[in-house]
Fold tRNA (guanine-N(1)-)-methyltransferase.
Amino acid sequence: MRIDVISIFPEYFAPLDVSLMGKARAKGILDVRLHQLREWAHDVHKTVDDTPYGGGPGMVMKPEIWGAAIDDVIAGGEGLPRLIVPTPSGRPFTQAVALEYAAEPWLLFAPARYEGIDSRVMIEYGSRLRLDEVSIGDYVLAGGEAAVLVMVEAVARLLPGVLGNAVSAVDDSFAPGAMENLLEGPVFTKPPVWRGHEVPEVLLSGHHGKIARWRRDEALRRTLRTRPELIERGELSAADLRAIES
Ligand code: ADE
């Protein structure tokens, strides 16, 4: 997968050299290309922002500079990327969206600073390619860069060959299928007793059916405790209902 990021802080993306993302890049699964937005600014100060029409606090990123940058990046590839603009006013980024993006050959992220990008940029590219304005949560970051890191990591770990064990992604919280709308339950490793705390016996039993049932029950109980709004009782089996009612 090719991922381009245009930002005034390309150095913000240094963590993409580390761990799973670093390995995915080294293996050629992930081709990340960082671009300095200011390279498309032509005045001496490399200005990328200006005061908002209508007044108000803060600055707005200039459309001509984003337009030139996006055009050039698009011209340097085949086909059209999916353009993703992180913003707290976007649609929520979820595991389902991560899966959708993981199926794309090319993503272009346009993280903004200040009060955001002149809205005509979204109008222009919304009519030329698939554009998503996406929020990673109901809080306001200082800029979209951290949101891009979050999204790239969530997407890249779903690409074939990135996770050591592809089955890990299947059991994830929110993963489509059995874990849809469920949070993953507790996990344990050796030793069997630590500071007097024992690993639940069923996990040592070797009985795969019982272990699967126990894990689902724990996931249901945890979800009920911390995110009750995720539980749709109508979609639960009798055994599921017993778990959350006990
Ligand atoms: N930029 C600032 N806050 C953001 C958020 N919550 N999600 C995505 N981009 C953002």
The longest helix spans residues 208-226. The domain at 171-245 is CATH 1.10.1270.20 (Trp Operon Repressor; Chain A).
